[in-house]
Amino acid sequence: MNPEIEPGSETEASHEHPNYILIWGILVSALLISLMMGYMQIPIVAIVLIFTVAVIKAYLVLAYFMHLKFEPFFVVLIMAAGLICLYFLFFLLVPDIVYPPTP
Amino acid sequence: MTTAAKSGFREATEVPTGRLGIWWFLASEIVIFGGLITCYLLFRWRHPEWGAHAHHTINAAGAFNTLVLLTSSLTVVLAHAAVTRGDLQAAVRNLGYTLLGGGIFLVVKVYEYTHEIQAGFTPVTNLFWSFYYGMTGLHALHVLGGMVAMTIVLFAVRKGRDAQRVEFVGMYWHFVDVVWIFLFPLLYLTS
């Protein structure tokens, strides 16, 4: 059950593995912080902070667990392409929300 | 055929073909979940009263499931690290833990759905609950699909085959985790 990893093969690591336990610890701490913010009395501040923490958590998973940080830049662009589509979707639909049709 | 091509690398991109394929697949998944989340955000902007509906979702269950998915992400990346060391026994063990995490997540989801439906909140109650069941249901299907793929990979790796697929199935699993990282505050915390 201990086959040799062929150099240059898909199973060979192209970089050092980060400290995954430490990253998991940060993610769990961030989850606890989000939960505490849910009880804040100022809703708009709570919402901004909760989503800031969510973005940080997503970055940690993408960068270190999925190794996006160690991929060539064009791979980041592949992922960004989806987000750019969503950006246009959001702002093209905003007028329908801000200026709803009058009956 | 060059050594790089034989071992699954694209010489032009320096990224293994399988991994590049998974990145493209995940980019398409961003649009699927992102489209739903974007529409939910716009409707939520239009209907501030949805906060009262979100108050009925079970925060503790959502938080527990977040912890379960974060931990299963850890175990699947440890499985990948084990493959790069050539320790396939550890990889199989960590894939097993990840499957257990996926199973726990789905059991909690079933509990939540049962609780909500018994309280009278069904997918046709109003648009908030349609989004709730639509987004969490699609996510749960992705968890289930990931578990099926992971089981296939686990049995292959046990026989010493296709170890590179541990990374691919792991990337998909992490993505499912990232989606939940956003669904949790959207549907539970911001009530």
Features:
heterodimer, A: 103 residues, mainly alpha, 3 helices, 65% helix, 0% strand, disordered N terminus, B: 191 residues, Four Helix Bundle (Hemerythrin (Met), subunit A), two-stranded antiparallel ribbon, 7 helices, 2 strands, 81% helix, elongated
Please give a quick description of this structure.
With 103 residues, chain A is an all-alpha fold. Chain A has helices at 20-37, 43-65, 73-98. Chain A has one domain.
Topology:
The complex is a heterodimer of chains A (103) and B (191).
Chain A: H1 20-37, H2 43-65, H3 73-98
Helix pairs in contact in A: 1-2
Chain B: H1 3-6, E1 9-10, E2 15-16, H2 17-46, H3 50-54, H4 59-85, H5 88-118, H6 127-158, H7 165-189
Antiparallel strand pairs in B: 1-2
Helix pairs in contact in B: 2-6, 2-7, 4-5, 4-7, 5-6, 6-7
Give the helix proportion of chain A (percent range).
55-70%
Judged by helices, strands and strand pairing, the structural class of chain B is mainly alpha
Low-confidence spans of chain A: pLDDT under 50, at least 5 residues? Answer: 1-9
Q: What is the CATH level 1 assignment of chain B?
A: Mainly Alpha
β-strand percent of chain B reads: under 5%
Mean pLDDT of chain A: 83
Count of DSSP helices of chain B?
7
**What sequence of helices (H) and strands (E) makes up the elements of chain B?**
HEEHHHHHH
Q: End-to-end distance of chain B, in Å?
A: 58 Å
CATH homologous superfamily (4th level) name of chain B:
Cytochrome c oxidase, subunit III, four-helix bundle
Secondary-structure-based class of chain A equals: mainly alpha
- The gross shape of chain B turns out to be elongated
Shape descriptor of chain A reads flat
Q: What are the secondary-structure elements of chain A, in order, as H or E?
A: HHH
Distance between the termini of chain A: 70 Å
Biggest interface, residues from each chain: A-B, 54 and 64 residues
Q: What is the total number of structural domains of chain B?
A: 1
The CATH topology assignment of chain B is: Four Helix Bundle (Hemerythrin (Met), subunit A)
**Could you state the oligomeric state of the chains shown?**
heterodimer
